[in-house]
Target: ABC transporter ATP-binding protein
Amino acid sequence: MTLPDDAISIKGLVKTYPAGRKSPAKQALKGVDLTIPRGAMFGLLGPNGAGKSTLINILAGVTVKTEGEVTIWGRDIDREPRNARAALGVVAQEITADVFFTPRESLEVQAGFYGVPKAERRTDELLEALGLADKAEAYVRQLSGGMKRRLMIAKALVHNPPVLILDEPTAGVDVELRRQLWAYVRRINAEGVTVLLTTHYLEEAQELCDRIAIVNHGEIVANATTPELLRRLDTRNVVVTPEEPLETAPEISGFEARSRPGGAFSITYKTGQSSVEQVLMAVRAAGVRIRDIATEDPDLEDVFLALTYADKSKMDPTRDRA
Ligand SMILES: Nc1ncnc2c1ncn2[C@@H]1O[C@H](COP(=O)(O)OP(=O)(O)OP(=O)(O)O)[C@@H](O)[C@H]1O
Model:
C-alpha cells in the first residue's frame, strides 16, 4: 500500500452549532483549511473556545460537521467513515476510565472493540511503554489521575493507528508525568506515528511540535514551522496613557489599539516589523497627546489578536504550507 502524503487533510471546514433556547447559533469553525503532513508532530494552538475541540471531535466522529471535506489517512470521513476512524487514535480531554476493569482488561476490551486479533494485540508492550506494567491487574479506580491518563493513551493505541490525536494531554498533569508523556509521544512519533496535539500552552507546542497552527475564533490565523512561528510571535505591548483619558481605544493607522482601564490603551506590535518609535508616531498622528508609556510582554491572547489583525490586513506568505 502506498502511504498518503498527508495524514489529515481538511478543506473548508465549517461547524455551526444550532441556536438553543437561550443561546444564539454559534459558528465554531469558519471554513478551516488545514493539512497535517504524514509523520508530523503537529500542534494546534489556541485559547479556550477557539474551536480546537470542535475540530478534533469532527475528526473523531463524535461531532457532525456542517460543511467541508475531511480525509484521514487518505480516507474521506463521509465516504469511508469506518476506515477513516480506524486510522485514528484519539485521547480525549476528560479523563474517562472503566472502573470495573483492570488496565489489562481495559486494553483487551478496547482491542476487541477494534477487532484486533488476539495474536496481534500489544497489551503487554503498551502497559510497559506507559509505565503501567506493575498496575496491570489493579482496579482502575485505584489508579492516580496521571495513571488513568496514561491508560487512555494506551487505549488509543491498541489498534496501532498511524495517526494519534491528543486533546490537551497535559491538562492537570504534574511536571514529572508531563515529561514522561512527552518522551513517549516523541518516541512513537520517531517510530512513524503522526501526532496532532491540541494545547493552549505555547510552551508545550513549542517544545514538542515541528509545526504549529494557531486557531482563534474558528479561523486558522497562522500555520508555520515552529521556528518560523516563534519569529512571528516576537511581539511587544506598548501601553499608552493619554493626557485626556479615552473611553474607547482610538483608531491608529496600521495598528490595533485596545482599551485599558483608566482611559489608557495598549497596542501589540511585532518587533520584526515595527519599533516603539513607529507606534508612538502613529499614536501622535492620530491626535493623541501622550502622558506616559510603558512596554510589556504580551500574553497569548494579545498575540493571537495581533496575528489575526496582521493576517487580515495583508496577505501572509507563511499562512499555508508551501
Ligand atoms: N455543543 C455546543 N453547542 C453550542 N456551542 C458550542 C458547543 N460546543 C462548543 N461550542 C462553542 O463553540 C466554540 C468553540 O468551542 P470549542 O470547545 O471547540 O473550543 P476549544 O478551542 O476546544 O476550547 P477549549 O480549549 O476550552 O476546549 C465556543 O464558543 C463554544 O462555546
User: Anything to note?
Assistant: Residues 234-313 form a domain with the Alpha-Beta Plaits fold (CATH 3.30.70). The first strand starts at residue 6 and ends at 17. Residues 17, 26, 28, 46, 48-54, 200 surround adenosine-5'-triphosphate (CB under 6 Å).
